[in-house]
Specification:
Length: 1508
């Protein structure tokens, strides 16, 4: 930023820093690339959208002016097939390095065509993430060893970066001396003008000296900023890599919030880069102040102290502003963390939000969090405006105090004295009012960030906890190396541990409750125990660190006195009720939990270096399925194919477009729940670890696949390994070699199944009950929680995937399901207009604001002109009071207007940011569900975090800076032309030259920035991805591999950012040298035209002071204009989301209004729960394939319906049609209580039905918020629902205000499932939908849910219940069974009715060949209970008698005979019950009916060979 007295002020280096400013780009738009010894192989397709748009635009431009050289100059060409790498700085000559000529090839290419990542030079050695982080961590370890908990990160930073910091400081100090010399020489030059007898030779020598100093200043300025900006980049890179490497060494209990750690690497480390260019002014400003005071005293005597005193009076105000900035920053970070974490949580659970019609309360919650954040942003904006205004007006204030005091003590102003003092004051004002406060502001923010990182680095590491376990255990013999025993645990008592002062305690919002929540433990921690033992004292323990001790507090004991032994070749089944500590047991074996008893002993086999571990929530990394299975291990084709086969993935692989090389999205979004579970299981099987820990991998698959996995994989492929299997499915538990029963974190029994079931505990009774049941009863259709949109999403993924995608082991990045829109070309004026008028009246923005901006600069220029006019008057005339009075009036007017315009501009910008966020939030949450299927979570979150933060903070400051610079440049040109009219001849050439450089810079820097943003995404995305699977990474021993992947990603981003930094210096150096040439021409011109134009010293002083100002101001104005345009991209991206298509279109609203006029919707609708399908079909957006086809079905009120079918049959699609997540067709083909659902507002439709999803999701907040976010029910109602599902007693003293962590990670999966059940109970809906909701709960909870559905006194006894089930025994006694296949309803009726159908040999289904033959169409009719297959053609009617298939009966026939007999008995009992209720025969007829019924049953059993 320039001042008004001829000095260039390098304001916040937004060009280099703002594109990284604030928050991660949590988006996941990544490429398969890992930097090895050469640049990564990005594909051209990554940038095709950008290229095509640019080419189209530029082609149009060239066609419109094809006859001119201008068209050929700007026309761009596509990149060549192979591009040589641009020169590297460290291999260039000294001259090329410091003139930035090594950037010439890249700038030339960027101006002609689109750049590709392959042509960027390699990262330089000094900038490598591995080297920088290694040095930091080495020095940090020494610091901790020496000082323990009192280790200070600033000392470590000084040791690592101190030399580079000192070198930059030397350049800054030299530049300051040059500026002071510039002022001195200007004074001597003006004295020559005042002397009529001065020779031309002396004048030319003075002009030559000024030119030399100007060129020196231009050179030093870019040297110092290059050194400091590179230092800031190195600090950012080093600390990001150090934080990541620390993450890999953290204990699970210490990781805290994922969002908080992401904020450290994306936001906090950015503070160092922001502070680096200004940090030196914390000491340079006082030094310059002393020097300038001396030189001012020489010129104006004691008046110098008045001028300097006015500046010193500003310093306390600046310090106050800095302190307020630090306070606001601390609070703002906390509220921003809270908002982003809540948003991330809600976006991850957007399906639940949609299904429950909770969009409005969630939008209100986000807006409430945003309001708290914007309150601090508003205060910060006021302070920024005050800071900008003080800087701008301080020039006039200091000159006013100095010259007015000099006038009062009898001094006489001369042009030499006046403009020499103005130059001195400009230098010291620059340091004191601009750079010094920025040094304090950014320094204080950096200090806060450094303390946050320091707290993080002091967190206890996993090795410390493991050493702690080694110190506590008994001195007993280790396991023999030849022994089959893998694990021995004795008296195992473990707790979730953390530091006494956890990360963020001082810097985060705290919402303390009596119920302590477990820290989020990533994928590995899904089952914290919520039951404590009365009287158990939590005993803190310590870990020795150097000369001090790191305390580890024990938040809650989750395991108590567990003793077990695990041997090779043995399968240990772990079972127990929900929240009993099963997952915690696995984590304790992995060493993730803190031993909390001196009696605890945990001994592992000496050769057990890695452990194969699958978490309860499968952890899938972005990449290919193959990469997820290999997980860094060498590819062995035979072994790999064998693993795929035993993990039941062969059929899935044949369905995927690219087989096992198919890309999966973020968190495996393109895979179903069962597929993710099997991929994770295959990863464990493919490894060669002798110990395998499986956390409930069978709950997400159907029973048949589960049986196959248990028999062929767990009992087959893993037969020679030690296996610990956690599961709720007791049919597998009783086949394990050993069984461990956990209840309340304690062992209720260990041994054979028949031994442990004889215990006296509640769960042992469940085991005994299950023992009496026939085996195989849970058998069912081969199904899992399929995602019917899978093929749709996968199709989009393949569109953006490489044709030759890498199948290397290190697949750390992948492409998104859809390409993110890349902004191309210039930002339209309409975007600027929409931004500035988004939150304020147009009249204010378009009239008052421009007038205020112009007036501020005009008053400043007039005040300077008046000073020159005054100084060149005769000596007796100068003493008139008229001159100082006018000068004071002009200065005070400048102060008032500058303050008013700054506050007005920042207020307008703040209102725009507030308004745009609210519009975007409302539009996103009201978008259709397909939008979230196509747009990854991270990409959406990026708009709410990084883009909004740039709009809130950096855009207003940069925009205001650019406007001030533009007016200063304009004022300089006008003054120059008015004084020396001949300059007008040079102005067009100078402008053309600057425009040429500006065009080349903008074209190149914009591309570099976009490529840098793409390479930055994997860096920020990889951190949360690793944290989610931290336990898995450590178990597999993959820490070094993940570190290398991250370092390569960071280096890849660093080389892009270094090119961006160099490009900015390339432009600045050339523009400043051009300005220096202009200054030289003016200096020599003033000497040469002295006589002909009659130039006076005062006017020459004004001209040269503004010419000196141009050196720096013009190039900064050009760069700031480009930066404003770049920042406006964030505005454009936000506005893009404010125009999203809403889920309810205008046509939908028209149908609602039309229906309301004829058939108003009752407040109690649906009253009966009657559902009717009348030829309903469904097609997913952006595809032409129907996934549901002409469904015809009537479901009477209160009917309990079980929906079965194989993977991809359309069951989940049917539910999405029911809730209108995807619009069905034709209109009016789905009716509830005789009202078409497409004529019912979505909020009414979804809000009056209830769903219990398969994957339960809970949101960050409280239990009350998760049960009733709209606050529609009383506490009594909510407690009653929680009591029914046995959750009330688990909440503790906080009750409904008990904290729920992100994704409910402080509750087990089963407890989250119960919370979903409580939601349904609270609503008392007449339609209940269950998407296999009992797959993750124990038998007791399962029984509770089934009783609620079937029981005579159950909560859902009168409701219509639709259940998607793949365990036939859960729906066999439902009123109706619906069988789906290939998107059609192929069979429906009561279970007994379907089992009575004759079973032919062709009806025994082959799961590998179950497809419809060409020319065959499955059709349904409304008057039959079966579907028929008829041979048809497109133009011929159906012919031949269709063959009726017994679909449901064939599924049952695949089960064991005992299980079939039980299912037939259950179906018969239900049928008999139905007949009695339906016919209600007289008493004397009942015996006859019963006899007939019994005969019917025996006949059916005899037909299927089940009559024993």
């Amino acid at each position: 930023m320039p001042d008004s007295q001829g000095q260039y002020v390098e304001d916040t280096p937004a060009e280099e820093t703002t594109h990284h400013h604030n928050q991660q780009n949590i988006k996941n738009n990544k490429d398969d690339a890992t930097v090895e010894k050469a640049p990564p192989s990005y594909t051209i397709s990554d940038f095709n959208n950008d290229n095509n748009a640019d080419n189209d635009k530029d082609d149009a431009l060239s066609k419109s002016s094809s006859s001119s050289w201008w068209a050929s100059l700007w026309k761009r060409s596509p990149p060549p097939p192979t591009t040589p790498v641009c020169p590297q700085r460290q291999t260039s000559s000294f001259f090329s390095r410091w003139t930035y000529a090594y950037m010439n090839p890249m700038v030339a290419r960027g101006a002609r065509r689109n750049l590709v990542p392959e042509e960027f030079p390699l990262v330089e050695r000094d900038d490598e993430a591995d080297m920088l982080s290694s040095r930091l961590l080495e020095e940090w370890d020494k610091e901790v060893a020496k000082y323990g908990r009192h280790a200070k990160l600033w000392r470590v930073s000084l040791k690592v970066f101190g030399f580079r910091f000192a070198l930059a400081g030397l350049a800054y100090f030299t530049e300051g001396l040059v500026q002071i010399a510039q002022g001195f020489l200007l004074g001597e030059f003006l004295k020559w003008f005042q002397d009529p007898d001065g020779t031309d030779r002396a004048g030319y020598l003075y002009a030559m000296g000024l030119a030399f100093l100007t060129f020196s200043y231009a050179t030093l300025h870019h040297v110092e900023f290059f050194l400091s900006m590179r230092l800031g980049m190195q600090m950012r890179v080093g600390f990001i890599a150090a934080v990541y490497r620390k993450c890999l060494r953290l204990s699970v209990g210490s990781t805290g919030s994922t969002g908080l750690i992401v904020n450290l690497v994306s936001n906090d480390v950015q503070r160092f880069e922001d502070a680096a260019p200004f940090a030196h002014f914390a000491w340079i400003a006082p030094v310059e102040l002393i020097l300038v005071t001396y030189f001012l005293y020489v010129q104006i005597s004691w008046a110098a102290f008045a001028a300097i005193g006015s500046l010193l009076a500003v310093i306390p105000m600046q310090m106050l502003i800095a302190r307020q900035f630090a306070k606001l920053r601390t609070k703002l970070v906390a509220f921003r963390d809270e908002r982003i974490k809540s948003l991330s949580d809600m976006l991850a659970g957007i399906m639940v939000v949609k299904l429950y019609a909770w969009e409005i309360p969630f939008v209100h919650r986000i807006n409430a969090l945003r309001d708290r954040e914007t309150a601090y942003i508003k205060s910060a904006s006021i302070l920024r405006a005050l800071n900008e205004a003080l800087y701008f007006a301080s020039s006039g204030l200091t000159s006013m105090f100095g010259f007015l005091t000099f006038y009062l003590i009898g001094g006489v102003l001369t042009p030499a004295r006046t403009f020499t003092c103005l130059t001195y004051l400009a230098n010291v004002r620059l340091a004191v009012t601009n750079f010094f406060p920025k040094a304090l502001q950014f320094g204080s923010e950096s200090w806060v960030s450094m303390k946050r990182i320091e707290e993080f680095l002091l967190l206890p590491e996993i090795e410390q906890i493991r050493r702690l376990g080694g110190d506590l255990k008994h001195k007993e013999d280790p396991i023999d190396a030849e022994s089959d025993t893998m694990v021995v645990m004795k008296h195992g008592t473990f707790s979730w541990g953390g530091t006494e002062t956890g990360l963020g305690d001082k810097y985060q919002i705290k919402n303390k409750t009596a119920n302590t929540a477990k820290p989020a433990a990533g994928a590995g921690a899904q089952d914290p125990t919520t039951t404590t033992t009365p009287g158990a004292e939590d005993q803190p323990v310590t870990v020795v660190a150097g000369h001090d001790e790191v305390p580890i507090s024990i938040s809650k004991r989750v395991l108590h006195d567990i003793t077990l032994s695990i041997r090779r070749g043995q399968v240990l089944g772990v079972c127990g009720p929900v929240g009993s500590g099963k997952s915690s047991l696995l984590l304790s074996i992995l060493g993730e939990l803190v031993p909390s008893s001196p009696e605890t002993s945990l001994t592992l086999h000496p050769h057990l270096h890695t452990i194969a571990y699958t978490s309860q929530m499968p952890w899938i990394l972005p990449g290919t399925i193959k990469d997820n299975i290999l997980f860094g291990r060498a590819y062995d084709r035979k072994r790999f194919e064998w693993v795929v086969s035993v993990c039941a993935m062969t059929r899935d692989a044949s369905r995927w477009t690219k087989g096992l090389d198919t890309l999966v999205g973020e968190r495996g979004v393109t895979l179903s729940g069962g597929q993710k579970a099997r991929v994770a299981l295959a990863r464990a099987v493919y490894s060669d670890s002798p110990l395998v820990l499986l956390d409930d991998p069978l709950s997400a698959v159907d029973t048949k696949v589960g049986r196959q996995l248990f028999s062929e994989c767990i009992r087959g492929a893993l037969k020679d390994r030690a296996v610990v299997l956690v599961t709720h499915q007791l049919q597998f538990v009783r086949e394990c070699d050993q069984v461990l029963v956990l209840e309340g974190g304690r062992c209720s029994g260990v041994g054979k199944y028949e031994d442990v079931m004889n215990g006296e505990t509640e769960f042992c009774k469940v085991l005994r009950e299950y023992w009496r049941r026939p085996g195989g009863l849970e058998g069912g259709v081969e199904d899992e929680a399929e995602s019917d949109q899978e093929d749709v999403v996968e199709e989009d993924a393949d569109k953006v995937a490489d044709e030759d995608e890498s199948t290397a082991n290190d697949a750390s990045t992948s492409k998104e399901m859809t390409k993110e829109t890349m902004t191309t070309g210039s930002i339209s004026l309409r975007t600027y207009y929409d931004y500035l008028t988004a939150g304020t009246p147009k009249a204010l923005t378009l009239t008052v604001l421009p007038v205020m901006l112009i007036m501020g600069q005009a008053l400043s220029d007039v005040a300077n002109w008046w000073l020159a006019y005054w100084s060149q008057k005769p000596e007796d005339e100068k003493r008139r009071d008229y001159y100082p009075h006018v000068f004071v009036g002009l200065v005070m007017a400048t102060v008032v207007v500058s303050l008013s315009r700054a506050e007005l501009f920042f207020w307008v910008s703040w209102k725009s940011g507030v308004s745009l966020f609210r519009q975007m939030c409302g539009k996103v949450f009201l978008s259709p569900m397909w939008f979230f299927w196509r747009e990854p979570h991270g990409r959406i979150l990026n708009r709410f975090s990084k883009d909004i933060n740039l709009v809130d903070e950096m855009l207003p400051m940069t925009f205001f800076d650019f406007i001030q610079c533009a007016f200063m440049v304009l004022g300089t040109v006008i003054i120059s032309v008015c004084i020396i009219p001949y300059i007008l001849v040079l102005v067009p050439f100078i402008i053309a030259g600057f425009l040429f450089f500006r065009h080349r810079y903008i074209q190149t820097s914009r591309q570099i920035k976009r490529i840098e943003a793409i390479t930055r995404s994997p860096v920020y995305s990889f951190v949360p991805a690793t944290l989610e699977g931290l336990s898995i990474v450590r178990a597999f021993g993959s820490e070094q591999r993940f570190t290398k992947i991250f370092v390569d990603l960071q280096n890849d981003n660093t080389r892009m950012f270094f090119a961006f930094l160099s490009c900015a210096r390339w432009l600045g150096f050339r523009l400043d040298y051009g300005s220096a040439v202009f200054m030289t021409i003016l200096s020599f011109g003033c000497v040469g035209l002295r006589g002909s134009l009659g130039l006076k010293a005062g006017i020459v002083g004004l001209l040269l002071s503004y010419a000196i100002q141009l050196t720096g101001t013009l190039q900064w104005c050009v760069r700031q204009s480009a930066e404003v345009e770049n920042l406006m991209v964030s505005v454009e991206r936000v506005m893009e989301y404010t125009e999203l298509e809403e889920e309810e279109s205008h046509d939908d609203i028209g149908r609602y209004q039309h229906r309301e006029t004829s058939q108003p919707l009752s407040p109690k609708w649906p009253e009966t729960g009657h559902i009717s399908l009348q030829g309903m079909s469904l097609t997913y957006p952006f595809t032409d394939t129907r996934v549901l086809k002409d469904l015809q079905l009537t479901i009477p009120p209160g009917t309990k319906v079980g929906i079965v079918g194989r993977t991809g049959a359309g069951k989940s699609s049917f539910l999405q049609a029911l809730f209108r997540l995807v619009p069905y067709h034709p209109p009016n083909s789905l009716l509830i209580d005789s009202i078409p659902t497409d004529t019912v507002p979505l909020r009414d439709l979804r809000g009056r039905m209830s769903i219990i999803p398969q994957e339960p999701f809970c949101f960050k907040g409280t239990v009350r918020f998760n049960i009733d976010p709209s606050e529609s029910y009383t506490d009594t109602d909510i407690y009653r629902a929680l009591e029914v599902v046995d959750l009330k007693s688990r909440l503790g003293t906080s009750g409904l205000e008990t904290d729920v962590a992100e994704n409910g990670s402080n509750f087990s999966v089963g407890e989250r499932q119960l919370m979903c059940l409580a939601r349904a109970i609270l609503r008392s809906s007449t339609i209940i939908v269950m998407d296999e909701a009992t797959s993750s709960v124990d038998l007791k909870t399962d029984s509770m849910i089934q009783t609620a559905i079937r029981g005579e006194n159950g909560m859902f006894k009168d409701a219509t219940v639709l259940t998607i089930a793949h365990r036939l025994n859960t729906v066999i006694d439902y009123d109706m069974i619906v069988v789906m296949e290939d998107g059609r309803i192929v069979e429906w009726g009561s279970a007994w009715e379907l089992l009575r159908k004759p079973l032919d040999s062709d009806d025994v289904l082959n799961t590998d060949t179950l497809t419809t033959t060409p020319g065959t169409t499955l059709t349904t009719t409304t008057n039959t209970t079966t579907a028929t297959a008829t041979n048809t053609t497109d133009d011929a009617p159906a012919s031949n008698q269709p063959h009726q298939r017994a679909w449901f009966k064939s599924m049952v026939s695949e089960m064991g005979q005992e299980a079939q007999k039980v299912l037939y008995d259950l179906a018969w009992s239900k049928e008999l019950q139905t007949r009695r209720r339906t016919h209600q025969p007289q008493q004397h007829q009942q015996n006859e009916i019963l006899n007939v019924d019994e005969t019917e049953k025996l006949d059916v059993l005899r037909q299927v060979g089940l009559l024993f």
